[in-house]
Amino acid sequence: MGVAEKIKKLKLKPYYFPLFVTENVLQKEKDHIEGFAPEVAWVTKSGKSDLEAPIAIRPTSETVMYPYFSKWIRSHRDLPLKCNQWCNVVRWEFSNPTPFIRSREFLWQEGHTVFATKEEADEEVLQILELYRRIYEEFLAVPVSKGRKSEMEKFAGGLYTTSVEAFIPNTGRGIQGATSHCLGQNFAKMFDITFENEKGERSMVWQNSWAYTTRSIGVMVMTHGDDKGLVLPPKVAPIQVIVIPVPFKDADTTGIKGACESAVYTLNQAGIRADLDARENYSPGWKYSQWEMKGVPLRIEIGPKDLANKQVRIVRRDNGTKVDIPSTDLVEQVRVLLDGFQANLLETAKAKRDACIVIISTWDEFIAALNDKKLILAPWCDEEEVEKDVKARTKGELGAAKTLCTPFDQPDLPSGTVCFASGKPAQKWSFWGRSY
Ligand code: 86X
């Protein structure tokens, strides 16, 4: 089943809550807000006059939504409540803001769901995570690993955090692609979200929250981009095929333009996102470079020879290969090429990512792999103190190493295996590395 169909089957309700949060509402979450507090942006003035009380811009919407959840949920018949909101949020980042990757304002969807039982919540956490994996791999052609965050890296307000993690080989850094949290009953306690169960008793709800952000665009750009610019996966490319006339001084310019228009029309009719670049003030070569920079997967060139032979030339953005195909096969061949392009991007990215994974067992191997910009899979004792210690011991200009996740896909862990950092018995294999 396609991702879109799966999402529809979740029966999420779209919501939109306000952008501004009053101090007193934001403070309801005071227990774990402390660490985040420096990132909260406050509006203090209108024009030149100070506001009576500063008002915060949402960094996330728990405190905005959950007071309403508390009012709306009365009985087990009000559950599950499945809320999804698309909005922008603001987090005043100090360290190295980077477009799309870490920016002070970003766009996301935040899902907030409420269940009667932990089992339902647990199941949904993984359903959502699988959808995030599929969006990354099937649409953005970015390979990711599903896994669980360590106690140190999880969302402190929740019970446990799962994530999809990508890796950027060029910089040797891991990057969190999206998260799906089980919040447990922590917020139910804070916001008094209870329901009457079938037996007529008051019970506390179980909650999840999950988000996918515009960071995914940054991950996609870094994964596929090259020295010529963007490379967009066909499934998400706004223009999949750019058609460029290649006129020659004394050639049949009108015929060429007509053939180009007809190619665009035929492709559009077949549901393919094709566009014509008919600008006369730019040379074909200049246009090739520009559309390459913009990452358009396929370029079609039609010149006098193509017109005469009733063919078109198709050039791929990913590997530069050129093929001449009869105009009659246009739709069929473009479909084949776009599918191949999409598959090739994921395969290439996966091969590159996999080539960066090293399995280590000792501290020396860990440091060597870290200096070598690798994605490290290491046997770990799963103790918070040890992760803190690794962070402290690897602190430096490039940033400290940390756990990215404990992948669900675990290699064998022979008994007697010890933690690379502490020498204590290893509990699991975890991904470690520097990250964004
Ligand atoms: C944690 C948790 C959670 C809904 C998600 O990861 C998915 C979507 N939210 C977000 N988090 C904060 O709670 C937070 C709070 C404040 Cl006040 C802040 F300034 C920054 C924050 N960053 C993350």
UniProtKB/TrEMBL annotation:
GO MF annotation terms: ATP binding; proline-tRNA ligase activity
Q: Where is the Aminoacyl-transfer RNA synthetases class-II family profile domain?
A: 1-233
Q: Name one GO biological process term.
A: prolyl-tRNA aminoacylation
Query: Do you know which SMART domains this protein is assigned to?
Result: ProRS-C_1
Quote the cellular component terms of the Gene Ontology held in the record: aminoacyl-tRNA synthetase multienzyme complex; cytoplasm
Q: Record's superkingdom?
A: Eukaryota
Instruction: Kindly name one Pfam family recorded for this protein.
Output: tRNA-synt_2b
Membrane-crossing ranges are none
* PANTHER family reported for this sequence: BIFUNCTIONAL GLUTAMATE_PROLINE--TRNA LIGASE (PTHR43382:SF2), PROLYL-TRNA SYNTHETASE (PTHR43382)
Q: What's the name of the protein? A: Proline--tRNA ligase
Q: Which organism is it from?
A: Aegilops tauschii subsp. strangulata
